[in-house]
Amino acid sequence: MNILAIDTSTMISTVTIANDSEILGDFNVNQQKTHSESLVPMIETLLELLGMEFKDIDEFVIAEGPGSFTGLRIGMTIAKTLAQVNDKKLIPISTLLALANNSSSDKLKVPMLDARGNRVYGAVYDKEFNEIIKEDLYTIEDFSKLVNDLDKEIELIGDISLKYQDLFEKEKVLPINFRNTIGKSLIKLALENKNDYDLYQLVPNYLRKSQAERELLRNDQKNGN
């Protein structure tokens, strides 16, 4: 079975192709282009390099979020289109859970993504990847306190772990090559996932309203609606 995984949760575009036993190709690009410009060419290039076509892919995997609103929307749209056109299954995987799976240590795994304004998308998992602190949107102060109150050795994972590492006790930051890209973890989690999903019901997991939605809500409240 061949699996193609996509992640557009952050500035990094990731495309990974694997079969049941090994990673065949892993393509990560951190650049200023939008995911809408880079993602499809990346997919086509990796397939070509591997001598494969879309018909050779048996399942698609998408990092469903949380993360960048625009990135998540683009990634989900492209993944759903590919799955629909090729009549294949699409498996959504939590971005934070995939980040946590970059670590194989016995420490508590603390994946974090930047939500701006001193806020983070965060969660905590144990060595078996059970959720200890639920995946949610937190202020960095609240999240670091929740983590420190656990009084356990932790491993910080994610694109802002270096920025906030001083707020955490008993911390270790995962090396940069493991900290951000999650293609291999998406493949691993997809192989373990036996659930069936309604392709047409799949949506990104934003965890909070977009800026446009928040502005609309504020305007409605001002107008007494």
What can you see in these coordinates?
There is one protein chain. The chain has 225 residues and is α/β, with parallel strands linked by helices. The chain folds into two domains: 124 residues, Nucleotidyltransferase, domain 5; 82 residues, Nucleotidyltransferase, domain 5. The protein has eight helices and ten strands. The strands form two sheets. It has a five-stranded mixed beta sheet, with helices on both faces. It has a five-stranded mixed beta sheet with strand order 8-7-6-9-10. Helix 2 links the parallel strand 4 and strand 5. Helix 1 packs across helix 2. About 4% of the residues have low confidence.
Level-1 CATH class name of the largest domain: Alpha Beta
Treating each run of at least 4 consecutive H or I residues as one helix, how many helices? 8
> Looking at this structure, what is the CATH superfamily of the largest domain?
ATPase, nucleotide binding domain
Q: Which architecture of the largest domain would the CATH scheme give at its second level?
A: 2-Layer Sandwich
Average residue pLDDT:
90
Q: Which class do the helix and strand fractions yield? A: alpha/beta
Largest sheet: 5 strands, mixed
Helix proportion:
25-40%
Unreliable spans are: 210-217
Strand content: 25-35%
- For this structure, the CATH topology of the largest domain is Nucleotidyltransferase, domain 5
The number of domains: 2
Biggest sheet, spatial arrangement of strands: 3-2-1-4-5
First-residue to last-residue Cα separation = 53 Å
Shape: globular
GO molecular function, one term: transferase activity
Protein name: tRNA (Adenosine(37)-N6)-threonylcarbamoyltransferase complex dimerization subunit type 1 TsaB
Keywords: Transferase
InterPro entries: ATPase_NBD, Gcp-like_dom, T6A_TsaB
